[in-house]
Amino acid sequence: MIRARLRGDRGSTLPVSIWLTAILLFAAFAFFAFAQAASARNGAQSAADAAALAAAQDARDELMEGLEAAVGVEDDWLDWLDGDGFDGAGAAAAAGELAAENDASVTAVTPYAVAGFPGFQVEIRTDYTVGDSIIPGTEGMHATAEAAAVIKPRCDFDVPDDPKDVVELDCDGELVDIDPEDFDLDDLPDASVLFSVHLAE
């Protein structure tokens, strides 16, 4: 009598075990799906950050080219150090190149400013999808993200009465002397000394 009851108990626990196993498998697949989505979002954000920085760095290069051409030629050459003399013509191409290196495509590049500092906001879409999962539609779902980067002038200086006078720049503690009357391109430091490029908060 006891043996018969034990067999019956074993028989009744089998469906419960199957049901619990199915629940655990579903939970595991669901967790994997969310992990896939999170990975895609992280990849998209990294691509957007890189693209925004590339756009701002391209504009910084444009500022440097303008400064190099203006010193000793234009009386208002110091205006280039304000960080807003660029037109950003190459920003979209630079952003697109970095996005492509991160398996993404740029969908928009727009001028952006934070606290008066100019820059760009970039929106991207991943070239890859989230992938197959138990959640319907993820196999065709692309991740999107946006980021903004700005250019911040790093140098303080006193504007001379005579545009031909030597100007001393204090670039966050690094002193740079520029003589418009005896200017050489080697007198200018690296662009990163004159301007910082960083992601906007």
Can you walk me through this structure?
The protein has 201 residues and is an alpha+beta fold. It has one domain. Helices cover 42% and strands 26% of the residues. The chain is built from three helices and seven strands, in the order H-H-E-E-E-E-E-E-H-E. The chain has helices at residues 2-70, 91-101, 191-194, and strands at residues 104-114, 117-129, 142-153, 155-156, 167-171, 174-178, 195-199. The strands form two sheets. A four-stranded antiparallel beta sheet has the order 1-2-3-7. The protein has a three-stranded antiparallel beta sheet with strand order 4-5-6, with no helix packed on it. A hairpin with a 2-residue loop joins strand 1 (104-114) and strand 2 (117-129). The protein starts with a helix and ends with a strand. The mean pLDDT is 83.
Order of the strands making up the biggest sheet: 1-2-3-7
Question: SSE order, as H and E?
Answer: HHEEEEEEHE
What percent of residues adopt helix (DSSP H or I)? Answer: 40-55%
Given as residue ranges, the uncertain stretches (5+ residues, pLDDT < 50) are: none
Q: Top keywords for this entry?
A:
single chain; alpha+beta; 201 residues; three-stranded antiparallel sheet; four-stranded antiparallel sheet; elongated; 3 helices
Describe the structure in brief:
The protein is of the alpha+beta class. It has 3 helices and 7 strands; from the N terminus they run ααββββββαβ.
